[in-house]
Specification:
mainly alpha; 0% strand; 11 helices; 302 residues
Length: 302
Protein backbone atom coordinates (compact mmCIF):
# COMPACT_ATOMS: atom_id res chain seq x y z
CA UNK A 1 0.00 0.00 0.00
CA UNK A 2 2.86 2.40 0.84
CA UNK A 3 4.43 1.65 -2.54
CA UNK A 4 1.16 2.35 -4.34
CA UNK A 5 0.64 5.70 -2.62
CA UNK A 6 4.27 6.65 -3.16
CA UNK A 7 4.03 5.74 -6.84
CA UNK A 8 0.92 7.87 -7.31
CA UNK A 9 2.60 10.90 -5.73
CA UNK A 10 6.27 10.67 -6.75
CA UNK A 11 6.38 8.17 -9.59
CA UNK A 12 8.93 5.46 -10.15
CA UNK A 13 11.79 7.52 -8.70
CA UNK A 14 10.22 7.64 -5.26
CA UNK A 15 9.58 3.90 -5.25
CA UNK A 16 13.13 3.18 -6.45
CA UNK A 17 14.60 5.38 -3.72
CA UNK A 18 12.53 3.63 -1.05
CA UNK A 19 13.65 0.21 -2.29
CA UNK A 20 17.33 1.22 -2.30
CA UNK A 21 17.14 2.64 1.22
CA UNK A 22 15.28 -0.42 2.53
CA UNK A 23 17.74 -2.77 0.84
CA UNK A 24 20.71 -0.92 2.32
CA UNK A 25 19.25 -1.06 5.83
CA UNK A 26 18.47 -4.76 5.47
CA UNK A 27 22.00 -5.48 4.25
CA UNK A 28 23.45 -3.63 7.24
CA UNK A 29 21.27 -5.59 9.66
CA UNK A 30 22.19 -8.93 8.06
CA UNK A 31 25.89 -8.08 7.96
CA UNK A 32 26.39 -6.63 11.43
CA UNK A 33 23.36 -7.56 13.53
CA UNK A 34 22.82 -11.28 12.93
CA UNK A 35 25.27 -14.01 13.86
CA UNK A 36 26.06 -16.75 11.38
CA UNK A 37 24.24 -20.04 12.08
CA UNK A 38 27.46 -21.98 11.42
CA UNK A 39 29.26 -20.06 14.18
CA UNK A 40 26.43 -20.79 16.61
CA UNK A 41 26.52 -24.47 15.59
CA UNK A 42 30.26 -24.70 16.30
CA UNK A 43 29.80 -23.08 19.70
CA UNK A 44 27.12 -25.60 20.62
CA UNK A 45 29.39 -28.49 19.63
CA UNK A 46 32.24 -26.99 21.67
CA UNK A 47 29.99 -26.75 24.73
CA UNK A 48 28.95 -30.38 24.27
CA UNK A 49 32.60 -31.43 24.22
CA UNK A 50 33.33 -29.45 27.40
CA UNK A 51 30.32 -30.99 29.16
CA UNK A 52 31.33 -34.48 28.03
CA UNK A 53 34.90 -34.02 29.27
CA UNK A 54 33.76 -32.64 32.63
CA UNK A 55 31.31 -35.53 33.07
CA UNK A 56 33.98 -38.10 32.32
CA UNK A 57 36.51 -36.43 34.63
CA UNK A 58 33.99 -36.58 37.47
CA UNK A 59 33.25 -40.25 36.77
CA UNK A 60 36.94 -41.09 36.65
CA UNK A 61 37.62 -39.42 40.00
CA UNK A 62 34.68 -41.11 41.67
CA UNK A 63 35.52 -44.60 40.35
CA UNK A 64 39.28 -44.27 40.40
CA UNK A 65 39.37 -45.09 36.68
CA UNK A 66 41.94 -42.55 35.60
CA UNK A 67 43.77 -44.76 33.15
CA UNK A 68 43.76 -43.64 29.54
CA UNK A 69 42.80 -47.19 28.55
CA UNK A 70 39.48 -47.10 30.35
CA UNK A 71 36.33 -47.80 28.35
CA UNK A 72 34.78 -44.55 29.57
CA UNK A 73 37.48 -42.45 27.98
CA UNK A 74 37.20 -44.46 24.77
CA UNK A 75 33.47 -43.84 24.61
CA UNK A 76 33.97 -40.14 25.11
CA UNK A 77 36.62 -39.99 22.39
CA UNK A 78 34.22 -41.71 20.00
CA UNK A 79 31.42 -39.30 20.95
CA UNK A 80 33.64 -36.26 20.40
CA UNK A 81 34.75 -37.57 17.01
CA UNK A 82 31.14 -38.26 16.00
CA UNK A 83 30.17 -34.72 17.03
CA UNK A 84 32.81 -33.17 14.81
CA UNK A 85 31.05 -31.68 11.76
CA UNK A 86 32.02 -33.07 8.35
CA UNK A 87 31.82 -31.55 4.91
CA UNK A 88 29.65 -32.62 1.96
CA UNK A 89 30.03 -31.27 -1.59
CA UNK A 90 27.17 -29.02 -2.59
CA UNK A 91 26.24 -31.20 -5.58
CA UNK A 92 25.80 -34.21 -3.28
CA UNK A 93 23.93 -32.06 -0.79
CA UNK A 94 21.39 -30.98 -3.41
CA UNK A 95 20.64 -34.58 -4.40
CA UNK A 96 19.94 -35.74 -0.86
CA UNK A 97 16.22 -36.49 -0.96
CA UNK A 98 15.34 -34.31 2.04
CA UNK A 99 17.15 -31.32 0.54
CA UNK A 100 15.90 -31.97 -3.00
CA UNK A 101 12.23 -32.32 -2.04
CA UNK A 102 12.42 -29.23 0.19
CA UNK A 103 14.08 -27.30 -2.65
CA UNK A 104 11.42 -28.26 -5.17
CA UNK A 105 8.68 -27.37 -2.68
CA UNK A 106 10.39 -24.01 -2.20
CA UNK A 107 10.44 -23.57 -5.99
CA UNK A 108 6.71 -24.33 -6.28
CA UNK A 109 5.70 -22.04 -3.40
CA UNK A 110 7.91 -19.28 -4.77
CA UNK A 111 6.36 -19.64 -8.22
CA UNK A 112 2.88 -19.42 -6.71
CA UNK A 113 3.73 -16.24 -4.82
CA UNK A 114 5.58 -14.68 -7.74
CA UNK A 115 2.80 -15.50 -10.19
CA UNK A 116 0.05 -14.15 -7.98
CA UNK A 117 1.97 -10.99 -7.18
CA UNK A 118 2.31 -10.40 -10.93
CA UNK A 119 -1.18 -11.36 -12.10
CA UNK A 120 -3.51 -10.31 -9.27
CA UNK A 121 -2.69 -6.56 -9.35
CA UNK A 122 -3.30 -6.52 -13.11
CA UNK A 123 -6.56 -8.42 -12.67
CA UNK A 124 -7.83 -6.14 -9.89
CA UNK A 125 -7.18 -3.12 -12.06
CA UNK A 126 -8.84 -4.67 -15.12
CA UNK A 127 -11.81 -6.26 -13.35
CA UNK A 128 -12.50 -3.91 -10.45
CA UNK A 129 -10.74 -0.70 -11.46
CA UNK A 130 -8.68 -0.82 -8.25
CA UNK A 131 -6.06 1.89 -7.75
CA UNK A 132 -2.42 1.17 -6.88
CA UNK A 133 -2.97 2.06 -3.22
CA UNK A 134 -6.03 -0.21 -3.01
CA UNK A 135 -4.19 -3.08 -4.63
CA UNK A 136 -1.42 -2.53 -2.09
CA UNK A 137 -3.86 -3.65 0.63
CA UNK A 138 -3.34 -7.21 -0.59
CA UNK A 139 0.37 -7.04 0.15
CA UNK A 140 -0.22 -5.32 3.49
CA UNK A 141 -2.46 -8.23 4.47
CA UNK A 142 0.17 -10.78 3.45
CA UNK A 143 2.80 -9.04 5.56
CA UNK A 144 0.49 -8.58 8.52
CA UNK A 145 -0.51 -12.25 8.54
CA UNK A 146 3.16 -13.26 8.39
CA UNK A 147 4.05 -10.95 11.29
CA UNK A 148 1.25 -12.29 13.50
CA UNK A 149 1.34 -16.01 12.64
CA UNK A 150 4.97 -16.86 11.80
CA UNK A 151 6.14 -17.42 15.39
CA UNK A 152 3.03 -19.35 16.57
CA UNK A 153 3.14 -21.60 13.50
CA UNK A 154 6.86 -22.17 13.98
CA UNK A 155 6.28 -23.06 17.63
CA UNK A 156 3.51 -25.47 16.67
CA UNK A 157 5.66 -27.12 14.00
CA UNK A 158 8.51 -27.68 16.48
CA UNK A 159 6.14 -29.15 19.07
CA UNK A 160 4.46 -31.51 16.62
CA UNK A 161 7.73 -32.75 15.13
CA UNK A 162 9.37 -33.25 18.53
CA UNK A 163 6.32 -35.13 19.82
CA UNK A 164 5.42 -37.25 16.78
CA UNK A 165 8.68 -37.51 14.86
CA UNK A 166 10.09 -36.22 11.59
CA UNK A 167 7.27 -37.79 9.58
CA UNK A 168 4.91 -35.16 11.01
CA UNK A 169 6.72 -32.56 8.89
CA UNK A 170 5.34 -34.18 5.74
CA UNK A 171 1.77 -34.14 7.09
CA UNK A 172 2.06 -30.47 8.05
CA UNK A 173 3.29 -29.58 4.56
CA UNK A 174 0.49 -31.56 2.93
CA UNK A 175 -2.16 -29.83 5.05
CA UNK A 176 -0.64 -26.47 4.18
CA UNK A 177 -0.58 -27.33 0.48
CA UNK A 178 -4.22 -28.44 0.60
CA UNK A 179 -5.28 -25.07 2.05
CA UNK A 180 -2.93 -23.24 -0.31
CA UNK A 181 -4.41 -24.99 -3.33
CA UNK A 182 -7.93 -24.23 -2.13
CA UNK A 183 -7.06 -20.57 -1.56
CA UNK A 184 -5.41 -20.24 -4.99
CA UNK A 185 -8.44 -21.86 -6.62
CA UNK A 186 -10.70 -19.44 -4.75
CA UNK A 187 -8.59 -16.47 -5.86
CA UNK A 188 -9.00 -17.63 -9.43
CA UNK A 189 -12.80 -17.56 -9.09
CA UNK A 190 -13.17 -14.30 -7.14
CA UNK A 191 -15.64 -11.81 -8.60
CA UNK A 192 -15.37 -9.20 -5.83
CA UNK A 193 -12.40 -7.27 -4.48
CA UNK A 194 -13.56 -7.72 -0.87
CA UNK A 195 -13.83 -11.49 -1.31
CA UNK A 196 -10.37 -11.46 -2.90
CA UNK A 197 -8.94 -9.80 0.21
CA UNK A 198 -10.45 -12.50 2.43
CA UNK A 199 -9.12 -15.36 0.33
CA UNK A 200 -5.69 -13.69 0.14
CA UNK A 201 -5.60 -13.70 3.94
CA UNK A 202 -6.25 -17.45 3.96
CA UNK A 203 -3.54 -17.92 1.33
CA UNK A 204 -0.99 -15.99 3.38
CA UNK A 205 -1.59 -18.21 6.42
CA UNK A 206 -1.56 -21.40 4.32
CA UNK A 207 1.75 -20.52 2.70
CA UNK A 208 3.29 -20.12 6.16
CA UNK A 209 2.13 -23.62 7.11
CA UNK A 210 3.97 -24.95 4.05
CA UNK A 211 7.02 -22.72 4.06
CA UNK A 212 8.04 -22.79 7.74
CA UNK A 213 8.55 -26.59 8.01
CA UNK A 214 10.26 -26.57 4.60
CA UNK A 215 12.70 -23.84 5.67
CA UNK A 216 13.48 -25.52 8.99
CA UNK A 217 14.04 -28.90 7.28
CA UNK A 218 17.30 -27.63 5.78
CA UNK A 219 18.78 -26.84 9.19
CA UNK A 220 17.35 -29.97 10.83
CA UNK A 221 18.84 -32.14 8.08
CA UNK A 222 22.31 -30.64 8.53
CA UNK A 223 22.18 -30.89 12.32
CA UNK A 224 20.94 -34.49 12.24
CA UNK A 225 23.93 -35.61 10.13
CA UNK A 226 26.43 -33.35 11.88
CA UNK A 227 27.40 -31.67 8.61
CA UNK A 228 29.39 -28.48 8.35
CA UNK A 229 27.05 -27.31 5.56
CA UNK A 230 24.51 -25.06 7.23
CA UNK A 231 25.25 -22.02 5.08
CA UNK A 232 25.30 -24.14 1.91
CA UNK A 233 21.83 -25.49 2.69
CA UNK A 234 20.39 -22.02 3.18
CA UNK A 235 22.21 -20.97 0.01
CA UNK A 236 20.36 -23.75 -1.85
CA UNK A 237 17.07 -22.54 -0.37
CA UNK A 238 17.75 -18.95 -1.45
CA UNK A 239 18.82 -20.06 -4.92
CA UNK A 240 15.60 -21.97 -5.55
CA UNK A 241 13.51 -19.10 -4.15
CA UNK A 242 15.36 -16.62 -6.37
CA UNK A 243 14.89 -18.93 -9.36
CA UNK A 244 11.14 -19.04 -8.77
CA UNK A 245 10.99 -15.27 -8.38
CA UNK A 246 12.83 -14.86 -11.67
CA UNK A 247 10.87 -17.23 -13.88
CA UNK A 248 7.36 -16.99 -12.42
CA UNK A 249 6.36 -13.37 -13.27
CA UNK A 250 7.06 -13.49 -17.04
CA UNK A 251 5.44 -16.91 -17.38
CA UNK A 252 2.37 -15.91 -15.36
CA UNK A 253 1.81 -12.62 -17.16
CA UNK A 254 2.22 -14.33 -20.54
CA UNK A 255 -0.35 -16.97 -19.59
CA UNK A 256 -2.68 -14.27 -18.26
CA UNK A 257 -2.56 -12.53 -21.62
CA UNK A 258 -3.12 -15.76 -23.58
CA UNK A 259 -5.56 -17.90 -21.59
CA UNK A 260 -7.01 -15.41 -19.09
CA UNK A 261 -6.98 -14.93 -15.34
CA UNK A 262 -9.24 -17.78 -14.28
CA UNK A 263 -7.45 -20.46 -16.28
CA UNK A 264 -4.06 -19.21 -15.12
CA UNK A 265 -4.81 -19.04 -11.41
CA UNK A 266 -7.58 -21.57 -10.81
CA UNK A 267 -6.17 -23.98 -13.37
CA UNK A 268 -2.39 -23.90 -13.72
CA UNK A 269 -1.37 -22.55 -10.31
CA UNK A 270 -3.73 -24.87 -8.45
CA UNK A 271 -2.28 -27.79 -10.41
CA UNK A 272 1.16 -26.83 -9.10
CA UNK A 273 -0.07 -27.43 -5.55
CA UNK A 274 -1.35 -30.87 -6.53
CA UNK A 275 1.94 -31.80 -8.21
CA UNK A 276 3.93 -30.60 -5.22
CA UNK A 277 1.78 -32.72 -2.87
CA UNK A 278 2.42 -35.74 -5.09
CA UNK A 279 6.16 -35.06 -4.91
CA UNK A 280 6.13 -34.90 -1.11
CA UNK A 281 4.18 -38.18 -0.98
CA UNK A 282 6.38 -39.92 -3.56
CA UNK A 283 9.01 -41.10 -1.06
CA UNK A 284 6.36 -42.59 1.23
CA UNK A 285 4.60 -44.26 -1.71
CA UNK A 286 7.89 -45.62 -3.04
CA UNK A 287 8.86 -47.10 0.34
CA UNK A 288 5.40 -48.63 0.73
CA UNK A 289 5.69 -50.18 -2.74
CA UNK A 290 9.09 -51.65 -1.87
CA UNK A 291 7.74 -53.15 1.35
CA UNK A 292 4.80 -54.63 -0.54
CA UNK A 293 7.14 -56.10 -3.17
CA UNK A 294 9.34 -57.69 -0.50
CA UNK A 295 6.28 -59.12 1.22
CA UNK A 296 5.04 -60.62 -2.04
CA UNK A 297 8.45 -62.15 -2.78
CA UNK A 298 8.66 -63.55 0.74
CA UNK A 299 5.22 -65.15 0.42
CA UNK A 300 6.06 -66.52 -3.02
CA UNK A 301 9.09 -68.37 -1.62
CA UNK A 302 6.95 -70.16 0.90
Amino acid sequence: MLGGVLYERTGIRGVSTLIMISGSLLSAVLMFGIREPLTIHKEILARQRVLSNSTISTQCVETGAISSDSSIVSKVDLQIVSNTPSNMPVWRLIFQWQVLSASITTLVVGMLIGSLESVVPVYTKDAFGASSSKTGLLFVLNGSVAIVLSIPIGYGVDRLISRHGEKMRMYIELVGLAFTGGAVFGIGLCKSFNVLIGVETLLAASVLVVNIPVMSSFGDFVNALGLNSMAQCYGIYNSFWALSSSIAPPIATSMYAQIGYQATVAGVLTSLCVLCSALILSETIWKAALRAARRINRNARY
